[in-house]
Amino acid sequence: MQRIGVLFVCLGNICRSPTAHGIFQQKVQDAGFAELIDVDSAGTAAFHIGKAPDHRSVSAAGKRGYDLSRLRARQALAEDFHRYDYILAMDEHNLSSLRAIQPPDPRAQLSLFLDYAPDQPFREVPDPYYGGSRGFEVVLDLIEAAADGLLSDIQQRLHG
Ligand code: 4NP
User: Fold this and answer.
1) Is the per-residue pLDDT at 93 higher than 80?
2) How far is the C-alpha of 134 from the C-alpha of 121, rounded, in Å?
3) Which of 8, 85, 111, 151 has the lowest tally of Cβ within 10 angstroms?
4) Is 10 an active-site residue?
């Protein structure tokens, strides 16, 4: 069976999308799907290529049991649309940057990540970079909820 590929995308790939990457990877592992689902993350901007996630994201996620420390930032590429099934943007700005590089006939379905968390009071994951520590907790809450919704969606797909 072809593996299902999931790519999370934000602006810098150092706060929101690595958080989603680490959380979703953990949930995939806990559900016993590590052999079936590939997880990755990228940024629409090139500022932080090769860098580890922001220490505030690593620390906040670590307190909830998720290890982001080994992730490294990269930039989203047009070819990602052929390599992944789901490309999940953290906000509308990321979504429009991705639409601008989307090739014809993509394999990937492109959407906002929080489409998988319809009960949450936000449609976008707010950028925590210039704010205080509370922003990083909001990011974690939203991403944990959407990761559960996404995993249910994929489980339904796997089981027909
Ligand atoms: P992210 O957050 O998109 O969630 O990784 C940001 C990281 C860096 C910058 C902006 C947002 N920046 O302007 O450098």
Assistant:
1) yes
2) 16
3) 111
4) yes
Return the best residue to mutate from 127, 142, 143 for the ligand 1 pocket (most ligand atoms within 8 A of CB): 127
Question: pLDDT digits over 32-88, tens only?
Answer: 999 999 999 999 999 999 999 999 999 999 999 999 999 999 999 999 999 999 999
CATH no. for residue 54? 3.40.50.2300
Domain count, the chain: 1
Query: How does pLDDT run across 8-25, given as a tens digit for each residue?
Result: 999 999 999 999 999 999
Please identify, by atom number, the ligand 1 atom nearest to the C-alpha of residue 10: 3
For residue 158, which phi and psi values (nearest 5 degrees)? Answer: -70, -35
Question: Please, what is the angle between helix 55-63 and helix 133-158, to 10°?
Answer: 60
CA distances from 27 to 22, 51, 66, 143 (A): 9, 24, 10, 12
